[in-house]
Design a protein that fits this description.
Blueprint (H helix, E strand, L loop, with lengths): L18 H4 L12 E2 L7 E5 L2 E4 H14 L16 E2 L2 E2 H25 L6 H22 L5 H23 L9 H11 L1 E9 L10 H19 L5 H12 L5 E6 L8 H9 L5 E6 H4 L1 E7 L2 H9 L2 H26 L4 E2 L1 H4 L14 H8 L3 H28 L4
Parallel strand pairs: 1-10
Antiparallel strand pairs: 2-3, 2-10, 4-5, 6-7, 6-9, 8-9
Helix pairs in contact: 2-3, 2-5, 3-5, 3-12, 4-5, 6-11, 7-8
Length: 405
């Protein structure tokens, strides 16, 4: 199995090709009809049969959902998120429901693992631990105040790993919903571009701008290389060698296969690659935008699509683009129709969005506020005091939360 996880990374960057699968974790759905529990034991969040989900897993989901709530469609950044509605619901309600859904998903994924006869091998467990350690190294400064590492592993890395296993088992080779090779190849040929580029910065190693004479020489060189590539007398690799010799540099050629529409590439580069035929090069002037010149070159994706799909991670990315929404819908339905789940409301009610979110007034509004009347200043002082109290409350709560497993 691929070690590349289909994740909902909400506090670090996610691979764009996997966004459709990741969307499930933060989807806003109607309120769940879940049973409540009067237990005073606040170490767990949910139970079903012999399975108990630690409260730390819910805390992680609640924390991450709170961080993402201000960026949902329709939320006004000039006002506190907690004073607004998200998808027609008070923000606090929306956050709680989605945190519950993300936690309940752990049970749904385990159900699918059982249905498909999947289990975590020793190698899988080691990979999950590796993924956990890697993520925790980057995120611990933000998370450890609220969530124990073991809860982060259960709620994030282990869940993502299992989610990916189920997805691949269904849509991969031999799966019940296997996607034919021809469909994968056709998708890559229609949506992906195989390209290379030489980026020529218009500054030296000390970030000092090149003299105009040198800039002209670099432009002339690249434009000459474009002509030679297009008339067949030079390859893009030879063009890179010529540039490196002129500029006394190395490793100037970058190559890749990607869906240009989803990668956030520069518009001029995308348009250049769209307009040229396979086997041709084009000069792109980005001196104004990023102090660089580019030579871009396009290969024939019809000839390289198969090779691209031979890579397991690439194949998973393409599968996720093709079937990610379908899979997400299926998992949502399983969450919606799941029965026998006991919710520990006494524990869940301990956590509110104000523990993890403090509204920060936009700079423009803050500047306007600073020049207001004395009464406004008094109001601002009161607000500042209130925020301090909120931070103290959050700190106290987080100390308890970080010890939860």
């Amino acid at each position: 199995m691929s070690t590349k996880s289909i994740s909902v990374e909400n506090v670090r960057r996610v691979h764009p090709a996997l966004r459709k699968l990741a969307a499930l974790f933060l989807a806003g759905i109607l309120a769940l009809g879940l049973s409540s529990c009067d237990s005073t034991d606040k170490t767990w969040a949910m139970k079903r049969g012999d399975t108990t989900i630690p409260i730390g897993c819910y805390i992680y989901n609640f924390y991450v959902t709170t961080l993402n709530a201000p960026y949902q469609e329709g939320v006004d950044s000039s006002k506190s998120m907690l004073e607004q509605e998200i998808e027609g619901k008070p923000a606090e309600t929306w956050i709680r429901e989605n945190a519950i859904r993300s936690t309940k998903l752990m049970l749904a994924v385990d159900d699918m693992m059982n249905e498909l006869g999947l289990s975590l091998s020793e190698e899988d467990q080691k990979q999950i631990e590796t993924n956990t350690n890697s993520g925790w190294t980057q995120l611990s400064s933000a998370l450890e105040k609220y969530v124990a590492k073991s809860s982060y592993q259960k709620a994030y890395t282990e869940l993502n790993y299992k989610y990916t296993m189920v997805f691949e088992a269904l849509y991969g080779e031999g799966g019940e919903k296997e996607v034919p090779e021809e469909e994968l190849l056709q998708y890559v040929k229609e949506h992906y571009t195989d390209y290379s580029y030489i980026m020529a910065p218009l500054y030296d190693s000390s970030y000092q701008a090149l003299e105009d004479e040198k800039k002209t020489a670099v432009r002339d060189l690249l434009e000459d290389c474009v002509k030679k590539i297009n008339d067949g007398s030079m390859t893009v690799e030879e063009a890179a060698e010529a540039y490196e010799k002129e500029m006394e540099t190395s490793d100037s050629l970058t190559s890749g296969v990607t869906d240009l529409e989803t990668q956030g590439n520069n518009d001029k580069l995308v348009e250049a690659l769209k307009k040229i035929d396979a086997g041709n090069a084009y000069f792109v002037d980005l001196s104004e935008e990023s102090s660089c010149y580019f030579l871009v070159y396009k290969r024939d994706i019809n000839k390289t699509a198969g090779e691209y799909l031979d890579n397991e991670d690439n194949r998973l990315s393409v599968l996720s683009e093709l079937k990610g929404d379908e899979f997400a819908d299926m998992m949502e339905e399983k969450v919606d129709t799941m029965t026998g789940v006991e919710i520990n409301d006494a524990a869940l009610n301990e956590y509110t969005a104000s523990m993890y979110y403090t509204f920060e007034e936009p700079a423009s509004s803050a500047a306007s506020s600073s020049s207001s009347s004395d009464s406004s200043s008094t109001s601002s002082d009161t607000s500042s005091s209130s925020e301090g109290t909120s931070e103290e409350s959050s700190s106290e709560s987080s100390e308890g939360a970080s010890s939860e497993e």
